[in-house]
Amino acid sequence: MLINSLLIFIEETLPIFVLYAYLCAWHSYFEYRKETKPVKTKSIGSFAGEVFKLKQDHHIYFICAIFLGLLLSAFITSVRPWLGMTLDGIGYEVVLILLALCFVASVLVGQITNNSSTRKVLFSLSLFLLVLPHASDFMVFFASVLQVQLYSSVYVGVSIGLGICLSISYLLFFVFRNMGKSLPLKLAMAIFLAGQLSNIVTILQQIDVLSSSLPLWNTNRFIADSNEYGQFFHVLVGYDATPTLIYLVILSASTLIIFTLLMRFKLIEGKSTAFGVVQ
Q1: Does residue 279 belong to any structural domain of this protein?
Q2: Considering only 15-24, 29-38, 71-80, 184-193, which range has the smallest mean pLDDT?
Q3: CB–CB of 206/93 below 8 Å?
Q4: Cα 178–184–188 angle (5° rounding)?
Q5: What is the pTM of this model?
Q6: Which of 160, 167, 257, 269 is 20–30 Å from 153 (CA)?
Q7: Residue 215 lies in a domain
Q8: Does residue 7 lie within any of the structural domains?
Q9: Residue 184: domain span
Q10: Which letter, b or e, does each residue of 45-78 get, where b requires 16 or more Cβ atoms within 10 Å of its Cβ?
Q11: pLDDT per residue over 237-264, tens digit each?
């Protein structure tokens, strides 16, 4: 139960921590550009006092969005059986698809806007939308654990998982914050969003909208989907040990489209900066 708790916690919460790190790095980068200050490389010691350096209200908005997502996910968990009976038994899956689409849209629009306030609201919305399905799944698992009363194993697993997720989030922010260039962050965000969007393929196969096909290869002997490394790479780059053709097509096309949109924003940003109208 300890290992299961650890893996499930990482699976459901790591995307939230990764997104938080990316959003903070993105927002921090453009706050520094707006202030026309060069991004200086800092030592780990001096950086520790400056981690996730943003205006205070940005963190408040982000954290409030996460807590609101947790509250609403508790409600979704309570009505989940009812949702599962609507729309000929696919109601909950339809909700998941809509949440995923709205999540990707909110992150994209937040990234391509030059307005700081709009970006803050949209990034908060994206965190809120991402928390809903993942927190609901973990609550279902936690409710089942309460029935067998294995509290100590779950608490230890959650504590270890929280430490791992916090460490990964801090490391990602540290890396992208000190690069001083937006291109690596844009590529990482494009791959991350494409991976989240590609999860829709699995949902559509579960409700028989897409037919399940044979995987093109199997890399479970190297990195299994069920272990912590598989989950880590699945969150970061959409890794799947047994990918189907449709999954790879959706993942590749989504990455290309999202990255193109973000690079298009680079051109717009450059023109706006030249005339001094970046807000």
Answers
A1: no
A2: 29-38
A3: yes
A4: 115
A5: 0.86
A6: 167
A7: yes
A8: yes
A9: 2-274
A10: eebeeeebbbeeebeebbeebbeebbeebeebbe
A11: 999 999 999 999 999 999 999 999 988 7
